[in-house]
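Help needed: design a sequence for this.
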């Protein structure tokens, strides 16, 4: 006998079983927007339960919602806690979900912001990667933190890194932007520039596609090359970008070509 996991109007991704008692956890998405929920099925009773729902308007430093469409093949620290990475504003963070309490938290360091990814979780260890606009990707391994703690900078043991050091030549910052006549919400941009300049450098403005996608504070070769040539680059997460809540994405509906374009300008 088959058991439908949705009402037929949603998409599901990243199905993962955990241990005992046996549960199936998956990502669920509506058809119109890439803002997702985390759902659990009790494999014995077939009861379906939403663990993490949509976030309409996150607080300033709070959880902004689930946007990923995949989970690591091995994502369980134990039967109760699942680890994955997801977009939270301009960053990608390591997230921990307690499936019993339904609490989800960001456990990456506040002092090492950038883009994290979880590759594997096994035997109390997490294998992942980290990068930022001035730091090419490095691979690390770390012990899973205790239930109430997050990672500290000293928890990461690098096992592979690039041999090129360019951090002395690149600086980056996150800009908070507001337009009084926008009709939308405050938004953000990532500004990457040469660390030392003699005059105001020429500017390259980059806007992501989608429109419901986002730019993140990752390292890219083309950005580093332009910085080396003396340019600055700004990446704009205009109204409609992912990583900022449901209302932020919905603000673009009916305003494509005006709200997003004016935000970038």
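Sure. Designed sequence:
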């Amino acid at each position: 006998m088959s058991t439908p996991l949705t009402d037929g109007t949603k998409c599901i991704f990243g199905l993962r079983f955990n241990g005992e008692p046996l549960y199936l956890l998956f990502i669920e998405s509506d058809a119109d927007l890439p803002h997702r929920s985390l759902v659990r099925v009790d494999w014995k009773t077939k009861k379906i339960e939403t663990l993490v729902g949509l976030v309409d308007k996150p607080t300033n430093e709070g959880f902004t919602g689930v946007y990923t469409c995949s989970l690591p093949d091995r994502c369980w620290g134990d039967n109760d806690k699942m680890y994955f990475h997801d977009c939270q504003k301009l960053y990608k963070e390591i997230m921990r979900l307690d499936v019993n309490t339904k609490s989800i938290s960001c456990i990456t360091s506040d002092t090492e912001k950038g883009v994290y990814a979880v590759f594997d979780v096994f035997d109390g260890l997490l294998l992942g990667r980290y990068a930022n606009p001035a730091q090419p990707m490095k691979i690390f391994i770390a012990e899973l933190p205790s239930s109430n703690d997050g990672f500290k900078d000293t928890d990461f043991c690098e096992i592979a890194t690039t041999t090129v050091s360019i951090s002395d030549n690149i600086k980056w910052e996150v800009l908070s932007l507001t337009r009084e006549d926008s009709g939308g919400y405050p938004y953000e941009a990532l500004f990457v520039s040469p660390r030392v300049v003699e005059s105001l450098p020429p500017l390259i403005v980059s806007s992501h596609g989608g429109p419901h996608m986002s730019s993140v504070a990752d390292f890219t070769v083309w950005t580093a090359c332009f910085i080396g040539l003396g340019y600055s680059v700004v990446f704009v997460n205009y109204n409609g970008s992912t990583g900022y809540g449901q209302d932020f994405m919905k603000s673009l509906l009916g305003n494509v070509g005006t709200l997003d374009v004016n935000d970038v300008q």
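The chain is about 5% helix and 40% strand.
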